[in-house]
Queue: 2 jobs
Job 1
Amino acid sequence: MNRSAVLAPVWLWLLLFVALPVVIVAALSFSSSIPGVPPYTPLLQSPDPANYAALTEDAFYLDAALKSLAVAGVSSVLCLLIGYPMALAIARAPERWRSLLLLGVMLPFWTGFLLRITAWIGLLRDEGWINAGLQAVGLPALRLLYTDFAMYVGVTYAYLPFMILPLYARLSRRDPALEEAAADLGAGPWTAFRTVTLPLSVPGIVAGLALVFIPAMGEYVIPELLGGPGAQTIGRALWNEFFSNRDWPMAATVANALLLALLLPMVALRARQ
Amino acid sequence: MADLEIAGLTVRYGPAIALDRLDLAIDSGEMFVLLGGSGSGKTTLLRALGGFIQPAAGRIMLAGQDITALPPHRRPVNTTFQSYALFPHMNVADNVGFGLRRQGVPRAEIARRVSSLLDLVRRGEFAGRRPDALSGGQRQRVALARALAPRPRLLLLDEPLSALDRSLREQTRQELLRVQRETGTTFVLVTHDQDEALAVASRIGLLHDGRLAQVGTPAEIYERPASRFVAAFMGAANILPGTVRTAAPDAVLDLHGIGPAQATGPAPIAAGGALHVALRPERLRIVPGEAHGMNTAPGTVTDSAYRGGTMDHQVRLQGGATLLVSQPLADGVGAGLLAPGSAVAVSWPPEACVLLPE
């Protein structure tokens, strides 16, 4: 069997389920919303960039994009701060413990995503377990659910494994002799980490940040279930255009804009390397 | 006065004992070689000196200071690692300057010292290169410069030449000796290669099963091995059991499978006692004619091999023992290949008998 025959299913898959939908969504974004089935003017009949104009004119979309940027940015940094020590601890654990600890990291995937996010409602709500704990030790109850705090907790919790796994992959391949050499040359544990371990793990950090930031940017479910009404992220805006307003072309425009906003910086970054 | 004093050092890995109550004193400015096979404890001792292993018992004193409990970054000891362990994300100059930055040396002073260290190892032109752009020999020299930069009281070298090609090894060995002379630093070098140890050491400590089998100058270890193990490790292929016939003034021995043999000097034990005798292959000669008298034995050649500088013959003696004879090619007789089955005589001078007490 030659190369192209082996790759044919891959190309077919990418064509049918990646390229074609992107083209359809792109075409849809240039049509207009009408009452009826389907709820848009025929594709490519009279391409109209009005939706993109609306995107820039209506502050709602820009605010939603900025909110998403904040959610994705803060959550990625939180995941990094929490995930790095965990990944390093697993990488430094004795060999026989490592697969067990990694299994622990991946264990949440065995339960449905929605179920796990819903479980946080039980923890965070006014009469939930966290508030019950606070009151048990004599502290006042806090409003946790339907706040930005709850949303950040949810996003960080959901995406933490995507930070830990690439970091672990990088850290587990580090050469222990390099850390010994740093110590030998007078670096204490923290200095050895700062000057040797950390810089050498940068590719893992970049991979982890990308794996958390990109899906968190378009996240819809967690802000919807845990966040307050003010947490209008771009994902929620898209959902509302599609399901509440039945404005498919506008939803497609938002989706396209999000795709471009994520893709263009990555292309630019690659071109620079 | 000894610079490094190791007393009763014991290291355990679980139930296994890697170093067993080891005592050793090394003088300032020595090129001390720790020699041993795998599992002998030589690397364990080096790592204990570097601070990477905590001993179960014992003490390490360096320049009068007890460093046993100090972590690696607080010891005036630096190491060149077997894999070199150069930092891949730093260029050569930053690698060499790493220890100086940790000491808080001013930037201009670091630049000056890094450049003089790179000159010392004759690699000044590599300052801006990354380690992965260097060959093995170049990395070795950068690792040496980096370890010397903080001006350690003691430099540890873990198998510094083992990763190098044979041709590069000799040259690098000369470099190591020159750098050691020029800096006057005490070097402790670990190797499994007895030729390397003989070539560079001021003294050798031969380790076996976590203990020092013998400590001495290369000549002492090679010519007066303290035990059968030392003799065998240092390449004595012919080790024969014997009995003392006359103990003094010069020992006369009965070598099992050979016959009577004359040695020089008195025997370490009384007449009638059992011992072993090492006969170095290069001290034995194939001689023409019939064997007669002491220190000569008749036999037949079983194998003959050309080894470049010498011709190596396996000779089965009439008494039953087999001897390896390394005949220099310059010698007339036995300098060519001998057909298996050739009848020959093997002879050796009395001083070739090395007596090994049990």
Job 2
Amino acid sequence: MKSRLLIPLSLGIIGFVVLLTVVAHGGQFPLLDPAGTIGLLERDLMVRTVFLMLIVVIPVFILIIFVGWFYRAENTKAKYTPNWENSAMEELIWWSVPLEIVLVLAALTWSSTHELDPMRALNHPKDPVVVEVVALPWKWLFIYPEQGIASVNEVAFPADAPIEFHITADAPMNSFWIPALGGQMYAMTGMSTSLHLIAPEPGDFAGRSANYSGEGFSQMTFTARALEDDDFENWVKDAKASGAALTPETYAVLAEPSDTGPVRYYGSVTMPFSAILNSFMSMPVMDHIEHH
Amino acid sequence: MKKHDTHEQVSFGLWVYIMSDCILFASLFAAYAVLHTQTAGGAGGAELFDRSFVLIETLILLTSSFTCGLALLAARAKNTVGVWLSLLATFALGATFLGMELSEFGMLVSEGHSWAASAFLSSFFTLVGTHGLHIFVGLSWLIALFIYLGIRGLTPKMSKRIVYFSLFWHFLDIVWICLFSLVYLLGSL
Amino acid sequence: MFGILTPEAFIHGPIETGAQLIVVGGALSVVLLLTITKRWKWLWTEWLTSLDAKRIGIMYLILAGLMLARGGVDALMMRSQQAVAVGAGTGYLSPDHFAQVFTAHGVIMIFFVAMTFMFGLINCILPLQIGTRDVSFPLLNSISFWLTATGAVLVNLSLVVGAFAATGWLAYPPLSEIAYSPGVGVDYYIWALQISGIGTLLAAVNFIVTIIKERAPGMTLMRMPIFVWTVLGSMLLVLFAFPILTGTMTMLALDRVLGMHFFSTDLGGNAMMYVNLIWAWGHPEVYILILPAFGIFSEIVPVFSQKRLFGYTSMVVATMAIVLLSFGVWVHHFFTMGAGANVNAFFGIATMVIAIPTGVKVFNWIFTMFRGRIKYTVPMLWFMGFLFSFILGGMTGVLMSVPAVDFQLHNSLFLVAHFHNMVIGGVLFGYFCGFAYWFPKIFGFGLNEMLGKVSYWLWIVGFAMAFIPLYILGMMGMTRRLDFVDAASGYHPLLVLAAVGAGIIALGAAAQFICYAVSTFERKRHMDRTGDYWNGRTLEWSVPSPAPFYNFAHIPTVHGRDAWWTMKEKKQTHEAGYQDILLPKNSCVGLLIAGFSFLFGFGMVWHMWWLLPVSLIGIFVTIVVRSFADETEYVVPAHLVKATEQRHHK
């Protein structure tokens, strides 16, 4: 680094940071300021990891700037050892410094990966609310096996109760993501993945597909609504009263590729999640050949 | 003066290439390992594979490796007739092997067990077929050798080419042994 | 006769028609220019059929430059679409076209810019660095290049005839299966990758043999320049990773063409297997690209610090450690697939372990600068830019290797920013650095430093402005590959800023091309008359610039690391007199095989089945005819070598 560069460069960086602050001002940061408990834990883990790395990264940055500046060719007063090519001591240090940070990170990773395993049921006095999620081209179907209802592009659940999502797809691979509540999980045909989340407080959160799945992908959003218990009861009642039924026939229409469409409710469900899942399991081989 | 494409470089290069070809087969083997239970309700390996038929195939291919070795010896002894005979035998045995493999495929398809019937069959046809494709390439290589041998005779260049060919041919043998034991023997258990 | 190719395949919307016109017009104007200047014969004998690695290298570089322009336009289209498609505005690209653009951008940048640029530099420099006159298999080298070019032609042909894949650059099934992508786009993708992939694999075989067998006397393995070591590592990775790509693409093609069920949703197909296989290739691929960049930095940092490389042995160990480790981390690309915590934690930790050898490299570079005399030339500036970008990218990479954190960052723009930090700030800056450094060696004159610096700073500013906002957008929960965003999301201002950044990068790229043009125009001023433009340390600087077609009049004898530096210190001279040199003759076999491969690929894409036997028989006949060519080499007589050397040393 030449010294005459340091000042414009620092000014540039400060200006850029100011510019970014202004531009990003007022935006929502669900990853940094999550509403869900899982999201908070993941945020904390992220912050902790960054700080651990900064222990090495900041000194390295300072070292680069100092070495780059001090040993510039113009500075003939600096010590110059053109043939110095190794030193066991120094090299031992920089094999061991990253090694130690990685050891710490590895321990953190091992415990956090198990603690925040999306498949693991949450430790909570209340029973979990089971919601079955089907990614369709290009909308989200939510089936409530306990309540016997279903909804499209809106998922509601009581606040402060664990939610147990079972996720599959009748579409190209998607990823089910509610950033404000916590991490995502893939939605794949013939496969059921699970995800446990919880929203301590009521609120509406944006959810979307996070894996490209074709033309309508950008519209593949939904609203996740954490409601007070009473409100949730009413929501279920309203859905029941809607009169529409999720039957194999109405499901087939819904599963056709189409624009995302409005929020919809089904008061009864005769097309269960397992049937959708199993429709991708192997069918008898002879049927298939006749079909051809 | 240093020549390009010397014997040492080419045979080393061929070894390096064969190493990468092993990886290609390894990925197809991996796919087969994942999918071999996915018979989609259809027949599995135990019902489909005819062990004695495949055993004959195997013996034929092993014999072709032997005749290929004879070609090497004949080339070293500068015995043109011997080279012709042993390479023709290698070709005939290789072609028979390929023919048998195709007839096995034909039989499976005609009985309704085509590659489109299940993931198991897809991976089976692809794995075995890729080996067959390599055999086909080997046979084409032999034809190219015959053309050269017929016009130019047993030149030193030709002798080296027989070495390269035999390296490839023996490699296919080894792959087949893996196929035979992992797909056919284990599959028909 | 024409398979599924119908006249409709040529008819597109207005934007695609513009692209069609540019491709066709560009090709026609090159043809016209060559005809007017009567350069066809020159092009044929000096370039297209040349087996000289340096010529082949320059052709790779030109291909990379052209593809960089194409991939760059794709990038600008994506950034501008996202900057205008907000709320009620839908932008100017249809969702399908937008998907084709981001797919093509990724495919082109990885396969036809980065890989091609890498092979260009390797071809131009590696034989010189190890003190040989040529690669082991010169004809194979030409075949490799032309197969790569064929892949690039297929990708770009999809602009004119048909369409490209709209699946993302890795074409995950089931989206890439015939059920969801019935068009020819994915087939173009498959065959472009298959054909260029075989070229890459053959090139790897060639360079592995060259490095092992062709080194100058005295150059033991532990005296090889680090660039040679990293290329060896990278080529070993190609050797072990690319066959997986070939196998995977074959399975996808069989699914699509023959109705197989490898990755389909029915009859037992398993799409997750594709994701595993493609990343078992894809992760090593990242290291295939970055290792030579590391090698370049290890060459230039000692030269411009005027000091020996610090920790040579550590560098070698670190390189080989990365080669090994890179095969054990692929699952970190899909922690969100629902594998168990043990699996995820294992692969997360394995990923972090790679940070150790990588960190060692960074420390060694810094300690090469330490107590040196650093000259801030353009290559050195690229290195400094790389250091900052790479450390930032490395940090975000380690962050995402923690599975529970990745659940939130996966597929977000944070990820996009991370890997651009690595492939632009790491790979591309590395190759730019190498290109600026070796430019005098390749072309015989230096570059205009001022324009080089202007371009550098435009790149740096543009890069920060285009990608730092993406990190922030990731924190806001924005997913990649969106063709429009909701106005309420608050993403819009940052997307505009990123688009401005992309525009500045484009200016930087333009400044680079201007720099090359201006430097060529005023080349008399920066002629490299000594052959040792930067006071270099390795053997490529021991020969005149540009290197004579036979590379070395005398094959050097190496007495230590930094072979050329040692020779300069010891004032070592060659034996007197010159000898005859044997060089490979030109051959059109590479072009012919590539031409037939093109027909094969085109036949596969458009189901013109008759083309397949035709092209295969064509390849067979070409090989048979070639097997009769006895005189594949020619002698450069000693007096001609002498005359050439004396002209250079005047």
